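Subject: Sanity check before I submit

Could someone independently write out the structure tokens for this chain? I want to compare against mine line by line before I put it in a report. The sequence has 238 residues.
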Amino acid sequence: MMNNEEEPSSDTYANWFALYTLGKYSEDMLSLKINSFEFGKFLNASQQTASRRINDLEELGWIERTIEGKTQHIVITEKGINILFKTYENLKDILEKILIIGKVKAGMGEGGYYVAIKGYFDQFKNKLGFEPYKGTLNLKLNDTDLKILNELIKKINPIIIDGFEDQNRQYGPVFCYDIYVSPLDQRDKKIKAAILHIQRTHHKKNIIEILAHDYLRDFFSLKDGDKLMIKLNRIKAN
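---
Independent answer below. Compare away.
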């Protein structure tokens, strides 16, 4: 892993972007054959600028190159790979800090029905750390926020509410994820809650259900269309 002085700074951003561009268009072994004119097109820059960037990358030790006629065979070095990897780690950390936004949406009472079932309710109370309100708040996420949420959830150990069977039917397990929610315009007013992933649901994929101790519509004075921020209380998955 590289040390701090090797991290891209504002002064070397153009060179970092050139390295990123080479990596984007390179082959599996992070190498490619290209001339400065073609590279300039990738960078949306002049041939002279592209040539200067290649020279800078070579001087930095981020690439090695050999001249083959009018074409250059460029290979990203281990040092260059470390630069890309460190940037990936930094961007990943930033993305994981992004707060997911959902819009309040009227529901059909389906979540409340499941929460109120004793076999579920007792487990919610014991495993989530709060006695839940017998109803859920529906939030609609846009495609981007939903994608981010799904990626983050993959890295979290869910709280599993076990399935059970009564005299009427079988009930499947419910996966819960610890979160905090707060209004977009009152970020300091937050409350512990949980996302419920119920197997049997008629909701569309971009609707999530939030369970909390309080009736969230009253607690935050919410109406349909209001925005809530979701912050996952992350626990690393094994």
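---
OP: Matches mine. For the report I'm noting this point. The first strand starts at residue 31 and ends at 34.
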